[in-house]
C-alpha cells in the first residue's frame, strides 16, 4: 500500500543479491549477451531501466516515458506486484547468435519462477525500506512504543519503552490490577493486546503513582495465514484527582465524606494519614472504605483505584 514510508523504488542497489541469483541462473540456462530490467514504480509513477552486460551493470535510471515494446527476438519475463511495481526482464542476443529451440524451451520452463522471484524481491526490498523508516520514526518519538506479535513477544521497543520496562525490573514497577493486587507492566500490556482485535484504549494506574494510557492498534501483516501484530503507544496522563470523579461517585450514592476518603486513597495515603488529614479516627476511615467498596462493587483499595481509573474522565 503506497504511503509515506513507501517512496523508494526497488532494484536500485548496484549489488542486489536477488537479481544476482536470477542472472546467474539465466546465464547458466540460456547464456544471454545482455539483460535489461524495465519497470514502473507505481507510488511515484516513474519508469526505470537497468542493464546488465557481462560482469558490468548499470544503476536503475529513471526514464522520461514508458519503454518501447520488447524486441520480438528478445526473451521476456513480465512481473507485477499490484500497486507497487510491474515490469519486464528482457534477455537479448546478437543477431548472429539466435536462440535455439532448446534454449527457448528452457526459458519457458524458468519464466514462472523468474517472475515470482522478481515480484518477491521487489516486495521484500520495499517492505525492508518501509520497515526501516517506520522503526526510525518510532525510535525518535518521546512516547514509549512497542510492537508485539500474537504470542506477546516484543518485536520492537523504542528507547522510551526500554527505559520504562527496565524500571519494571529495577523498581518493581507494576499496574494496580484490582482485586488481583498488582501485575507487572509488560504482563498487563500483553493481556490488553490479547484482548484487542482492532483498536482500543486503557488507562492504567502504576504502583509508583504515575498514570498511563495505553493505545493499542492491531495491524495485519501478510503471510499465509496472515498474522496480526499490536502496536502499543503509552501516553503519560495526569493522576486522577477527586474532582475528576465526583459525578461518578455521586451517581453511585457515595457521600461527600466518603469521597474525601477516596481522594486520599488516590493520592496514595495510608488510612492513618487520611484520618489525620480529615480529623477523624482510623476506624472511621476503614468504615467509610467498607461502605465505598460495597457501593462501587470492589473489595480492596487496589480494586477501588482500578475502578476509578477505568471510569470515563
Along the chain, the helix and strand elements come as HEEEEEEHEEHEEHEEEHHHHH
Top CATH class of the largest domain: Alpha Beta
Radius of gyration: 31 Å
What's the tally of helices?
9
Proportion of β residues?
25-35%
Largest sheet: 6 strands, antiparallel
Helix content: 40-55%
Task: State the secondary-structure class.
Answer: alpha+beta
Shape: rod-shaped
- Provide the domain count: 3
Q: Which CATH architecture of the largest domain would you pick? A: 2-Layer Sandwich
CATH third-level topology of the largest domain: Beta-Lactamase
Tell me, rounded to a whole number, the average pLDDT. 84
Give the beta-strand count: 13
The span between the termini is 37 Å
Amino acid at each position: 500500500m503506497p504511503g509515506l514510508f513507501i517512496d523508494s523504488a526497488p532494484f536500485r542497489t548496484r549489488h542486489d543479491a536477488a537479481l544476482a541469483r536470477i542472472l546467474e541462473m539465466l546465464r547458466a540456462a540460456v547464456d544471454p549477451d545482455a539483460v535489461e530490467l524495465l519497470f514502473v514504480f507505481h507510488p511515484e509513477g516513474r519508469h526505470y531501466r537497468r542493464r546488465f552486460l557481462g560482469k558490468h551493470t548499470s544503476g536503475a535510471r529513471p526514464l522520461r516515458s514508458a519503454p518501447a515494446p520488447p524486441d520480438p527476438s528478445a526473451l521476456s519475463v513480465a512481473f507485477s506486484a499490484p500497486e507497487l511495481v510491474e515490469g519486464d526482464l528482457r534477455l537479448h542476443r546478437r543477431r548472429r547468435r539466435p536462440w535455439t529451440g532448446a534454449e527457448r524451451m528452457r526459458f519457458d520452463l524458468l519464466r514462472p519462477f523468474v517472475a515470482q522471484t522478481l515480484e518477491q524481491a521487489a516486495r521484500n526490498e520495499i517492505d525492508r525500506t518501509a520497515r526501516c523508516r517506520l522503526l526510525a520514526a518510532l525510535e525518535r518519538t518521546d512516547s514509549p512504543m512497542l510492537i508485539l506479535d500474537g504470542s506477546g513477544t516484543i518485536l520492537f521497543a523504542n528507547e522510551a519503552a526500554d527505559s520504562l520496562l527496565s524500571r519494571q525490573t529495577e523498581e518493581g514497577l507494576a499496574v494496580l490490577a484490582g482485586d488481583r493486587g498488582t501485575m507487572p507492566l509488560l504482563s498487563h500490556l500483553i493481556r490488553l493486546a490479547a484482548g484487542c482485535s482492532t483498536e482500543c484504549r486503557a488507562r492504567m494506574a502504576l504502583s509508583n503513582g504515575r498514570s498511563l494510557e495505553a493505545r493499542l492498534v492491531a495491524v495485519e501483516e501478510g503471510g499465509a495465514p496472515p498474522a496480526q501484530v499490536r502496536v502499543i503507544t503509552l501516553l503519560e496522563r495526569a493522576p486522577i484527582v477527586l474532582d475528576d470523579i465526583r459525578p461518578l461517585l455521586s451517581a453511585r450514592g457515595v457521600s461527600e465524606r466518603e469521597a474525601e476518603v477516596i481522594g486520599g486513597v488516590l493520592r496514595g495515603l495510608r488510612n492513618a494519614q487520611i484520618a489525620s488529614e480529615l480529623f477523624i479516627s482510623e476506624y472511621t476511615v476503614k468504615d467509610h472504605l467498607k461502605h465505598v467498596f460495597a457501593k462501587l462493587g470492589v473489595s480492596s483499595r487496589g480494586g477501588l483505584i482500578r475502578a476509578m481509573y477505568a471510569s470515563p474522565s
